């Protein structure tokens, strides 16, 4: 990882934690690689990408580029991508969902 990306990721993580407060921020590292285009990973796997559609919301895509959905908020789109990628914290066991 380049120094520039590492610094940007560190700054984004610390600013997100300050803004979120007691809420839980989406897991994984999210980087805006182009204006309105975000990609995420969680150190183990590629999570997916999110594209901002001005005036309409955020289109979320999974790790295999499958369309997940359109969301009003960036954090909602990130959460959806994380859930599809299976990268969320194991707070609920899969057996309890059956």
Descriptive report:
The chain is 31% helix and 30% strand. The chain is globular, with a radius of gyration of 14 Å. The protein is an alpha+beta fold. A hairpin with a 4-residue loop joins strand 2 and strand 3 (46-53). It has a domain at 27-88. The N and C termini lie far apart (40 Å). Strands 1-2-3-4-5 form a 5-stranded antiparallel sheet.
Fill in the keyword field for this structure.
98 residues, alpha+beta, five-stranded antiparallel sheet, 5 strands
Structural class: alpha+beta
Question: How large is the share of residues in beta strands?
Answer: 25-35%
Number of helices: 2
Q: How would a textbook summarize the main sheet?
A: 5 strands, antiparallel
User: What integer is the average pLDDT?
Assistant: 77
List the uncertain runs: 15-24, 88-98
Global Rg: 14 Å
Strand order of the largest sheet: 1-2-3-4-5
Number of strands: 5
Q: Kindly report how far apart the N and C termini lie.
A: 40 Å
Shape: globular
Helical amount among residues, as a percent range? 25-40%
**What series of H and E elements makes up the topology?**
HEEEEEH
Helices and strands in order, then pairings?
Elements lengths: L2 H18 L8 E6 L2 E5 L4 E8 L3 E5 L5 E5 L2 H12 L13
Antiparallel strand pairs: 1-2, 2-3, 3-4, 4-5
Short description:
With 98 residues, this protein is α+β, with helices and mostly antiparallel strands.
């Amino acid at each position: 990882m380049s120094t520039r990306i590492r610094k940007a990721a560190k700054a984004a993580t610390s600013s997100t934690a300050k803004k979120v407060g007691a809420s839980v921020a989406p897991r994984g590292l999210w980087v805006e690689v182009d204006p309105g285009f975000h990609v995420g990973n969680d150190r183990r796997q590629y999570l997916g990408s999110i594209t901002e559609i001005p005036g309409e919301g955020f289109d979320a895509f999974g790790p295999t580029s499958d369309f997940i959905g359109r969301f009003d908020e960036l954090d909602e789109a990130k959460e959806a991508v994380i859930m599809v990628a299976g990268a969320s914290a194991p707070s609920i066991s899969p057996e309890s969902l059956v």
